[in-house]
Design a protein that fits this description.
153 residues; mainly alpha; three-stranded antiparallel sheet; 3 strands; 61% helix
């Protein structure tokens, strides 16, 4: 039977024994792709900040002015938590939730870059299907699933 490398412990913390390769992938994607773009107008991050009011540009601009900085700050705090706990083998629920949010954000950025619009890409061209970013996306998806399952238990 498969024992997840991420599971809840009796004291309420989480056993977090993911492979080093996954930890390094998360570090790379957070440091190189996600974190730097959070403080810019990087178009690859548009999925992280969808318009709150659909096509209403005036209301969206007002919402962005009021809540935009707080949304960015929350994402930056989550990435800080991930980087601080990168090599930890035990996480609190709050830390594991930060990992979940950060990995999901990184997946959205990667999906935008490689043209994935839905959860499962219908067709990818030969160049995209062999890209490193698609492999990263798939590995992050697998890690996200393990985290969600652990938090659901």
């Amino acid at each position: 039977m498969f024992r997840s490398p991420i599971r809840r412990r009796s004291d309420g913390t989480y056993r977090f024994q993911i492979p080093e390769a996954y930890r390094e992938l998360v570090r790379h994607v957070v440091e190189a792709d996600l974190r730097p773009g959070l403080t810019t107008d990087d178009p690859d991050l548009h999925r992280l900040f969808p318009p709150a009011y659909g096509e209403d540009d005036d209301r969206n601009a007002g919402y962005a002015a009021l809540a935009g900085r707080e949304l960015v700050d929350r994402r930056l705090a989550a990435t800080d938590t991930v980087l601080e706990t990168l090599h930890s083998e035990r996480l609190t629920r709050e830390q594991l939730e930060a990992w979940m949010r950060t990995i999901n954000d990184a997946r959205l950025v990667l999906a935008t870059r490689i043209g994935i619009e839905d959860e499962e890409p219908a067709e990818l061209d030969d160049e995209t299907s062999e890209s490193a970013e698609l492999n990263w996306y798939q590995h992050l998806s697998a890690l996200l699933e393990l985290i969600v399952r652990a938090l659901s238990d």
